């Protein structure tokens, strides 16, 4: 069983090309093998930028990222990123979608045993032949998760992948993703706006402040075993995280949620982002 990757950032700072403001200040961070880490902070503080840098999709303008001691300069199938949209091919079956990562990485020989194995893990064992269009949003996200797991990653990076799902489906996936990563020894890094999600899924949360993005607080989430929002330890950690979030963001959670629910008013439009790059 893999133990998950050990990740270090050393003096990582980032400014997008084109001369804009510094997006990340100085991030010195260590993530233990198999740890589940949440990144939280207000919109635009640099969470996705940091996640891209940790995955190797972006190279920081200053500093470096080491995974198991080796310098990261590009993405790798051992570090898989998942986004809000499951990005499945609608004309393919569940098993064909799950096999795509294997196909792109020249590992189709493994597909015969690997696909049923990962479909079992995400509890879609009976869905292999189904068309992905006939699945619910939560099931489609499970297919995307299975596709990621098929490659036996040692790091899974999630950028708010559950935010489009209803509360019940979301809770089940939070629980299952944490369990799967712990069982398989995968280091999990998760960006979320949802404090409950951080407490459900992570061993530790980093709260980022903006302009430039820096780690403002670090909060351990030492809740052994299954987690439920009704547990006392859950609400204790939740309270600490809300306070840290509010201090870092300079606004109350209620304001933050209003801010978040209408991001379009506050965050630059995609075309502006492209132009700025
Ligand atoms: N490709 C890009 N080119 C230029 N600037 C960018 C680019 N991507 C992001 N930015 C800018 O960097 C800053 C941080 O963006 P980032 O997407 O990392 O924030 P975030 O914390 O993930 O926000 P959100 O919670 O809204 O997803 C923002 O000011 C954003 O406009
Ligand atoms: Mg983001």
Could you explain how this protein is built, in words?
Pfam families: ABC_tran. GO terms for molecular function: ATP binding. Residues 7-235 form the ABC transporter domain. Keywords: ATP-binding, Nucleotide-binding, Transport. This protein is of the alpha/beta class and 277 residues long. Helix content is 37%, strand content 21%. The protein folds into 2 domains: 7-78 and 155-276, P-loop containing nucleotide triphosphate hydrolases (Rossmann fold); 86-152, no CATH class. It has 10 helices and 10 strands. It has a 6-stranded mixed sheet with strand order 6-7-8-3-9-10, with helices on both faces. A 4-stranded antiparallel sheet has the order 2-1-4-5, covered by helices on one side. Strand 9 (204-209) and strand 10 form a beta hairpin. Helix 4 (111-121) crosses helix 5 (137-150) and helix 7 packs across helix 8 (232-249). The longest helix has 18 residues, at 167-184. The N and C termini lie far apart (41 Å). Mean pLDDT is 90; it is low at 261-277. The protein binds adenosine-5'-triphosphate and magnesium ion. Residues 16, 20, 23, 43-49, 263, 267-268, 273, 276-277 line the site of adenosine-5'-triphosphate.
């Amino acid at each position: 069983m893999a133990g998950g990757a050990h990740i270090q950032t050393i003096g990582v700072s980032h400014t997008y090309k084109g001369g804009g403001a510094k997006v990340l200040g100085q991030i010195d961070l260590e993530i233990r093998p198999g740890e589940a880490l949440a990144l939280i902070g207000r919109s635009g503080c640099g969470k996705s930028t940091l996640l891209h840098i940790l995955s190797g999709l972006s190279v920081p303008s200053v500093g470096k990222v080491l995974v198991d001691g080796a310098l990261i300069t590009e993405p790798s199938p051992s570090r898989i990123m998942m986004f809000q949209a499951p990005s499945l091919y609608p004309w393919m079956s569940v098993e064909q979608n799950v096999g795509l990562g294997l196909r792109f990485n020249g590992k189709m020989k493994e597909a015969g045993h690997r696909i049923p194995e990962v479909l079992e893990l995400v509890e879609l064992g009976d869905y292999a032949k189904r068309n992905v269009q006939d699945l619910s949003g939560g099931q489609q996200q499970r297919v995307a998760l299975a596709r990621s797991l098929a490659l036996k990653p040692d790091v899974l990076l999630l950028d708010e992948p559950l935010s489009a799902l209803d509360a019940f489906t979301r809770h089940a996936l939070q629980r299952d993703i944490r369990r799967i990563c712990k069982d398989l020894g995968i280091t999990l890094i998760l960006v979320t706006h949802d404090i409950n999600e951080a407490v459900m899924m992570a061993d530790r949360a980093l709260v980022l402040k903006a302009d430039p993005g820096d780690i403002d607080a670090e909060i351990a989430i030492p809740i052994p075993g299954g987690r439920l929002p009704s547990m006392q330890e859950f609400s204790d950690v939740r309270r600490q995280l809300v306070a840290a979030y509010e201090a870092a963001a300079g606004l109350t959670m209620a304001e933050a949620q209003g801010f978040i629910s209408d991001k379009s008013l506050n965050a630059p439009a995609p075309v502006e982002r492209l132009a700025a790059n």
